[in-house]
Design a protein that fits this description.
Blueprint (H helix, E strand, L loop, with lengths): L4 E6 L17 H15 L5 E6 L11 E4 L3 E3 L7 H11 L15
Parallel strand pairs: 1-2
Antiparallel strand pairs: 1-3, 3-4
Length: 107
């Protein structure tokens, strides 16, 4: 079954002392795990796919989450935000405005 939405969660890390921040250093792995937990809780398999991935582009403001096919990028996502993203965006196509990455994040 083709998923309706595909969520990519950046878990890219950088070595200690690197001048750029990273999504891993901001909690990207915990965000990815929370998406997988929420996916299981809702039994949304088949409708929604969740993939941990490497860098999505921006590094400041992580962890970043990208939702396709919508092309919506979120920044500073924390585990406590995941249920709201499911409730509003993944289920009802209403992006969570307070978490949207600015247009400049796309490069």
């Amino acid at each position: 079954m083709k998923p309706r939405k595909h969520v990519f969660v950046c878990t890219q890390g950088r070595p200690p002392g690197h001048p750029r921040s990273s999504c891993a250093g901001s909690g990207g792995a915990a965000v990815a795990q929370t998406f997988w937990d929420e996916l299981a809780r809702r039994q949304a398999y088949g409708r929604i796919a969740v993939t941990a991935c490497a860098c999505l582009g921006p590094c400041d403001g992580g962890p970043h989450v990208l939702v396709y096919p919508d092309g919506v990028m979120y920044q500073r996502v924390q585990p406590g935000d995941v249920a709201e993203i499911f409730d509003r965006h993944l289920e009802f196509d209403e992006p969570v405005e307070r978490l949207l990455a600015p247009a400049a994040a796309w490069g």
